[in-house]
Amino acid sequence: MFRDLVRFELGYQFSQTLIRVAVAAFFLLGFFLGYTLYAGPNVYRLAPIAIAQGMVLLSLSSFFGLALFTGNAVLRDRTHGMEPLVHTTPVTFFSFLSSRLLGLIVVVFLVVGLAGLGMVIGGTLPSPHGAEVGPLRISAFLSAFFTFTVPNVFLGLSLLFCVATLCRGQIAVYVAGIALFIVYIVGSMLSNSPVMAQSKQLSADETKLAVLLDPFGVFPLYEQVRYWDLAAKNTQLILLEGDLLANRLIWMTVSLALCCIAYRFFRFREAATTGRTPAIVNRPLAVSSFAGLQPVRPRFGGGFVLRTLCSKIAVDMQLMVRGLPLLLLSLLCLFLFGMVLTEEMGRGDLGVPLAARAALIIPELQDPMRILGPLVVIFFTAEWAWLEREHRFDGIVDSSAVPSVVLWVAKWLGLGCLILFLISLAVMVGAGYQLVRGAGIHDLSTYARLYGFVGFPLWFFAGWVLALQNFLPNKYLGMLAGAGLLVLARALRNLFQWELSFLTMPFFPAPHMSEMTGGGYGDDVAFWGMLLHLGAALLVGAAALFFLRRGHKRRAFGVMRPVAVLAVVGLTALVASAGVVFYKTHFDMQVASGHEIEAWRAGYEKTYRATADRPQPVYRAGRVQVDVFPERRRYQVTATYRFMNPHAHALEQMTLTTPPLRGLRCRTRVEGANRKDVDSRFGVETYVFETPLQPGEEGQLHFELTVKQSGFGSMDGEHYVLPGGSYIELSKFVPNFGYLAHLELTNDPLRRKFGLPAHSGWGNDDDSDPPTQPWFSLELTASAPAGSRALSLGRLEREWESDGRHFSTFRIDQISSHWYALSVGDYAVAETTVDDVRVAVWYRPGHEANVQTMLDAAAGALSYFQTHWGEYPYQDLRIVEIPAFSARFGATSYATTIFAVESRLFLLDQQDEDAFNMVGRIVAHEVGHQWWGGMVNPAPVAGYRMLTEVLCEYAESAVFAEWYGWDEERFYLDEVAAKYFFFRGYDAVEEPSLHRIGGETHPAYFKGAHAMHLATQFLGRETVNQRLAAFFEAHRFPARPRSTDLLAILLEDVPTPQRVRLEELFKRVVTYDLRLREANRDTDDLVHLAIQVEIQGDSAENRPMELEWIALDQKRRPLGEPQTVTVKAGDTAVRVKVPLGAASIEVDPRRLYLEANRGDNRRTITLP
Amino acid sequence: MLSITHLSKTYPGGVRALDGVTLDIGTGIFGLLGPNGAGKSTLMRTIAALQEPDQGSILWDGTDIVRYPHLVRQVLGYLPQDFGVYPKISAERLLDHMAVLKGLRDKKERRRQVDELLERTNLAWCRRQAVAQFSGGMRQRFGIAQALLGDPRLIIVDEPTAGLDPEERNRFHNLLGEIGENITIVLSTHIVEDVRRLCGKAAVMAGGKVLLEGRPDHLVEQLQGRVWRRSAARADLPQWRQRHRVLSDRLEAGRCFIRVLADHQPEAGFEPCPAHLEDAYFAALAAHEGEVAVCSAT
Predict the structure, then answer these.
(1) What is the CATH number of the domain that holds B157?
(2) Are B246 and B200 in a shared domain?
(3) Contact (CB, 8 A) for A435 and A441
(4) Nearest CB to B84: which of A277, A391, A551?
(5) How crowded is residue A764: how many other Cβ atoms within 10 Å of its Cβ?
(6) Is B272 found in the same domain as B193?
(7) What ipTM did this prediction achieve?
(8) Which of A804, A1088, A1106, B148 sits at a 20 to 30 Å CA gap from A1028?
(9) Residue A296: closest C-alpha in chain B
(10) Which of B214, B234, B265 is the last residue of a domain?
(11) Short-list B230, B213, B232, B211, CA closest to B286
(12) Domain range spanning residue B14?
């Protein structure tokens, strides 16, 4: 019997159109996933890690299909009224359930297997982005398929099968499917998966549990590859061993257990709560007369449509939202939103939480809603669309006088209500989070953005899916088509590289938001984009209404008027918004897409790279007038620059480059020179001097610059003008001399795509000395609307009001480079004075929380640096708040002025006095740049960042060690070591040593902090400071020092063993892995230690190493001072004498070795 | 006045559900008789604007309701053959909702009519219970209540008494009889007795065609004196069918009786008996199919 049942089941399944369509759809999905495999820059598309990620994504996508297939397989008896017939046969539970399950498994794995095949084919096609595909290894696909896809799909299948079997409700299956997605999102978030933005790393203890509890294996996957470098990522297979194996076994067991649960609790009897069984005893018709029944004459005039609409929505809502499934969905959403906020906001960088402000909460909430929302829409739209038919009430409703437009619009509006409800849950969680964090809810109205920027897009998408459901013959096909719409929009965008974000489905406006501006970066785009999508949805709605399925008909006569209204309104909205977008992007201002900018940069390099060595003048002084009009998102600059010839020979011509990007237009005039060539495409102008510019001779340049911005095009965090907060790194956008190397593309795959050679980076030590750079002086007058003010570099010389605008003039006489910026905002100020320097923090009113911390940190750092390194040459030091749109950096330091991002400093929650003082630390770092990068301006060659970021890492640690001591420093070092090892896994090229570092950031910051820590431990703080003071004195501007100049001073007379260790960090790339394998007590005071040492990188020969250890008591407090043992690479056994009360041993307590995993450096002392 | 002319409908797959149906239906209850698959439900759904005919027209008081279906919906009360109800929604709430859909916008009037209909269908006592929990009879009463909402001028009831016990069925017929005095009711059934009791006019359908149309008593009258009856052994039935136009065979008190259509006494043993509407029905079917239909009833 069982065999016959299975045969019937398979025959039934494969006769379904749904299955045939799903097979094709999943094959295409797999193909698309394969074509878009990506695991980071320079990682092969067919790298095992990329394939593993793709297989995880495939299993995630399959959950959607599972929800459909499971419903079709398990719930079809109920749907088609076959239950009484089937359940009264003598078939056993086991035969019945196992045949259904087996049929389902065969179908699902056929579909998923074909998707996997699609992935193989898609993955081998050439990459559209120029990325290397890498060698095809079927073993990598098979390994990932059986390690991730098969167990994940089986888990999803078991869960949904169990839920469908026990609950016998389609919505319960959908909710279970959504729960799987939520678990995936949370798992990805915790495991620092690249699919989730701004994920955080867990602590070691949390990681152990999470690795096992993640049902999809995402966590163990990323744990396995966390510290893999580029070569490993491109070559190593994901191994099914250790934690990953344990995880897979656990969840396969869970899957089997779910099947057993389904078998154990399944009954052929109907559930008491199904509502199908009559529960009311009949009372016969007692009154059998309708004589005298008063008819009520219907009225179909004005108001009828509205009344029926309201009634229909109310009844539909009652049907859809009542009951356990929606309650469960709500709870799941609450859990997800709560988790997201707790993780993303409550555990910020270095454990410092973000302030519980709506402006920060909203972008965090948008992320999961963008993933989850479309899924909820697809599931619930299916149920809504087929509501009457599923309950066999369609005949009565369709034959009633209700207008067809009501039948359509009521469902769409009902879905809108559901979306509204889900977003309200998110708002509740956000507001609740604010209350729990004690922040109060002063910005509740800000949450309206969630309704607008998430709710409307989902609602428009629901319109499309509803239309598809109307056109297709069953709801499962409709759901598949809805999902297909999502994938298709994404695939088309990827294939054609559409830049405009609103050409996606659903269109979610970018979540960037700032309290300073009171809104987002591209709210204008959001408005027009949503109008466009509204128009499209209305047009689709009109088509669906025209062909509305009412009764058995497709054409609904009598709906021409509403159809016409919908079509006209939709078309108007579509055409108007598309017209505005076209005008804004093509006529109002030329908006270049990201792709166009890349092509422009490549073209610029190809055309002008050869001119890079041509001698050019340098700027001496600038007198700049900037008028900023935030309401109109534009500014204009009128400037006169003095320049000089720094070379030993005369210059006959010079080249000015003003990249005509981002709505920028510029007119230049050079006194005593004639414009010879103009390349308007690249903004390059060549001037020929009437008489050659002699060495040391000066000339004058006049230019007028206008910049008009809009939210169209990609956001530039260094250049935006918005009401309430503008930030302009102006020196990058004014005319600059010669070839601008910073415009070159640095991404090698991208360069390959444009036929460019690999990027040359930052040059090398053999580069000739840069031309002498004179001090640059700047007088900048900026005007802003009344109520706002502009802030820039130097001392504020004058400010006044005129014509309803606020003017400020800043002057600074000595800047070591032509590098300046300004901001405009509605500012308040807090000030203090340190050693005759005015220290001020300019902030948006309402952002006072960390202002005093900043003042204290700036004052303390300034005082420390002046004491130990050298005098600060200016009278002002100001910290200026800029909007969160610049969150790519925390703060950036110019001479006298530090621009600090609101979300990275001002809106950090530093109320907990025991928490890490992140704000102070960043401020100290940026103040350090006044010396390192400011007064000391390194030569622009390899090793540049060692004299800027590495020394600023030291600067902050020097200040903080004095304030907070070793405990905080140890915490910081552990954190940055973890970051270093994490980020080096994404290195596009081989990591350079610190003394030759170029644009790479993570070695400069994270390894740099460790290197300077080691120098401090070996030399002592005072010595390091003295040597830095000497370096500062010898190499301050106008000198252009190199990293080797610093090392020469820093490493002078350092004893050999320590020098070797320091050179390992500064001149080589060496890492360690220390492990205390055993700590067995021999006698009361003697402990046997088994120590394992691994050395990676270009280390010196295998030499004896001095390794410190320390005994800890029960509470992990140190007992005495660290002791030293001598070890070698490999295993070393030693016996050490421990103090009384020692409970555990830790090796390398002072963090003298750079290693990824310190969790195995400590071990409890055990008996042998 | 409902005027149906040359109505045809063929489903995908080639099933010809309606084949040139022409009917004029006036005030009162019009019965549609026919075996399963005769096309009754297709005709009803077409009149109720739930599907479109391939050919032909349906005029309601002169208005083409195929072209303007919303016009018939404004005067229609429809009780389908097999209808479900929304779960979790009370009778009162669902009836109120249907009243809104039928254009009863005044809340007081709507409430009054809903109350009245619930009372008259004896559902007032369980008005707050979910309709999904009702028994079959209660659900049918709810169905007729919703069909009567507003001021329907045309009521279509498709096999409304299927599944009801005899008592409930009687009461239901009485209700239909009362409401059918001033409006048009189209009643579809395959129970001949229902048509005889209720309908002022009836049509017999089979194979999508109207085989017979007229007042039930007139239809019966045409057969008077031509129906003969006798007992017969069941084993001999095939032979009787070969020899005569057997209209039906029926077990009565354990004995099998056959009814035969003939202008004269077919042979010895046959007795004349009064013609019934059922005889007219079977005679029409037999004429259509070219053979005598057999109806077994125990």
Answers:
(1) 3.40.50.300
(2) no
(3) yes
(4) A391
(5) 12
(6) no
(7) 0.84
(8) A1106
(9) B150
(10) B214
(11) B211
(12) 2-214
